[in-house]
Amino acid sequence: MAGQPPQPKENLQKNPRDAAYWAQGVKALKISEVPEGAVNLNVEGRRVVGPLQGFGRMWQKTYRIPLEGSGATPAEVVKVWKERFPEFWMPGNRFLAPKGGLAPGAVALINSDVPGSRWFSTGVMVLYSDEESFTYMTPEGHPFSGWITFSSYADDEGTTVAQAQLIIRANDPLYELMMPVGLHRIEDRTWQHTLRSLASYFGTGGKVESRVTCLDPRRQWSQAGNIRYNALIWSMIYAVLAPMRPRRERKPTN
Amino acid sequence: MPAKHLEASVRYPPGERAGAAVIELRGEIDGFSQEALDAAYAEAESRDPDIILLNFSEVDYINSTGIALIVGLLAKARASRRRLLACGLSDHYVEIFNITRLSDFMSLFPDEESALTKSAGA
């Protein structure tokens, strides 16, 4: 980082300068607080998964938008993005960040409206967070197994650019079947909307550039058993059983 | 401190270790490292080795975008049925490879010698 004196290699080994940016190792996710009206399902006790633990084809999806004329630096963009992340999301989705914000290791709940399941519930863990980027890692059962990195940088012309980059694969065979019939489209719309909302906050418009690359066309059949954690299935069961639960547990999510 | 962009060079150990390619990495692995990493990987692959070893002993910084680039290399290696190994990671980055679960799919070794020796018969 700028302004820091060089450290001897021994010190770097003992006190790496990025140590504070990474989540500490956790065996299972733990929700520190559940906001009123939110559904805490499919996150607590689950492990995080990266793009290597999923089932389907591995995709790299990059969405970026230039914030021309905004005058904002990359660090300012990322600061706002972290602080106001839920505001930039698609309508119909709730991103419930913990009170401490999106610090490394923080776990956020996601409650979404999905056809067939009123309370689709999942979450993310903040894997990494520094001044110019932050990364989410998904839990078992999430539609995607992987990482989502949000960052900002100045391009060759000096224009600040905001970017969301995903490295993901469908977590299980059911989600993989859903990829071509809607999941890809939902993912594209989500991040395009987020970037447009972010640009709008900074008083700019512009077109979101999208680039999709298949990094690994193979399916990992050894991971097919991930379906036992499928958040969509568990959310549907949760919704079906809702009438049998005491009324105080059946709060609507919005 | 200005960022130290990544430099990567490829070596092919002789003798019993033939069949392996070593990519020596120096500097920082972040979003600007893709070109250097991809070029080194392509060069390493050109001799069709069974094993490609990433030597991180001269790497002092990896951010989450850098970790994602390593996943990309791992995907390429798995697609072409090569083994991608890593050595020379500091304790801190061994922990990061565990957290990100890269180590589920990538064997980690303390140094090049042990990586090439132990992987030779595996």
Question: Can you characterise this structure?
Answer:
- The complex is a heterodimer of chains A (254) and B (122).
- Chain A has a single domain (21-229), classed as Alpha-D-Glucose-1,6-Bisphosphate, Chain A, domain 4 (2-Layer Sandwich), CATH 3.30.530.
- Helix content of chain A is 22%, strand content 29%.
- Chain A has helices at 9-14, 74-83, 173-201, 231-240; strands at 48-49, 58-66, 93-96, 107-114, 117-129, 133-139, 144-154, 160-170, 209-216.
- Chain A is globular.
- The model of chain A is unreliable at 1-8 (pLDDT under 50).
- Chain B has one domain (7-115): Transcription Regulator spoIIAA (2-Layer Sandwich), CATH 3.30.750.24.
- Helices cover 38% and strands 28% of the residues of chain B.
- In chain B, strands 1-2-3-4-5 form a five-stranded mixed sheet.
- In chain B, helix 1 packs parallel to helix 2 (64-79).
- Classes of the chains: A alpha+beta (254), B alpha/beta (122).
Topology summary:
The complex is a heterodimer of chains A (254) and B (122).
Chain A: H1 9-14, E1 48-49, E2 58-66, H2 74-83, E3 93-96, E4 107-114, E5 117-129, E6 133-139, E7 144-154, E8 160-170, H3 173-201, E9 209-216, H4 231-240
Antiparallel strand pairs in A: 1-6, 2-8, 2-9, 3-4, 4-5, 5-6, 6-7, 7-8
Chain B: E1 7-11, E2 20-29, H1 34-45, E3 51-62, H2 64-79, E4 83-87, H3 91-99, E5 108-109, H4 112-120
Parallel strand pairs in B: 2-3, 3-4, 4-5
Antiparallel strand pairs in B: 1-2
